[in-house]
Amino acid sequence: MRWWFLIIILIFSVHDVLAREIRSSEAIEIGGIKQWIKFQGADDQAPVLLFLHGGPGNSMMSYADRFTKELQKHFIVVLWDQRESGKTKELNGSPQALTVSLFINDAIEVIQFLSNKFLQEKIYVAGHSWGGYLGLRVAVARPELLKGYFAISPMINQLESERLSLDVMLDKAKEESNSNALAELGKVEIPFENSEQLYYHRKWLSKLMNSATPTQEKVELWSVTWLALFNEASQTNFFAFAPTLNCPVYFLIGSNDYQTYFKLADSYYQQVVCQEKKLYWFTQSAHSPNLTEAAKFQQVLISIINKN
Q1: Domains in the chain and their CATH numbers?
Q2: What's 178's DSSP letter?
Q3: Contact 187, 197 (CB under 8 A)
Q4: Whether this model's pTM surpasses 0.70
Q5: Residue 18 confidence (pLDDT)
């Protein structure tokens, strides 16, 4: 039996010699343009974890350390600025109109690049909000690429989510006899027809969730680039579109999330058929459990890979 012990020692010794910390960024060719990615990890042979940021348009490069510091000890954490976002936007604009299919193809290319770069047949992917939607679309299209998918506050049926949250806000405004809220929310149509409707919805939604309220100027500026894409994505109803997902999927949901309505996420989780699935509730969180409960968020992801 002693030779088995020597082999085990040799394996760990070889790993210690070969394993290296990775801290780098680079522009890679994705979808015909340069797109910016960042690698962070204590071990360049650890499982890859790609984050798909929300928005759309909300690069997480500047704040991701708040919820990835511990993850970097267990994964190669990869951040990607999607087209028209962050560093990628600085490098080049998108020559093509922004469509859901374009972003799905970009995401698949990034995943394939990472699999080849790190010699991993499958990788982990995590997506938040719009990124949660994008990751689910990838899980539908190319499940064989994913070792596991972490859906963080994902858009499940966003048109219905917006309607439900609007109803909640109107009921609250009526109970409080808030004439200003009633007047502004009364102008909102779903899907959103313009930036003003989106602003009024998000203004009162932020108050409902006790989160930061966006300025009208910021919403107007965002809408110029992103509202059409957001409305296109909002049309997808995963209850009908993807009753089955052929890869492990883990849902991470804030108990006070009315932006991607938590009850819809729960209902979809209960119904979807997966080879493995689990739902994790974040009771102190609304739409961004990765930020508001960062320690728990990281521990959940680490516990899943340790189990696997």
Answers
A1: 19-156+237-307 (3.40.50.1820), 158-233 (no CATH)
A2: -
A3: yes
A4: yes
A5: 64
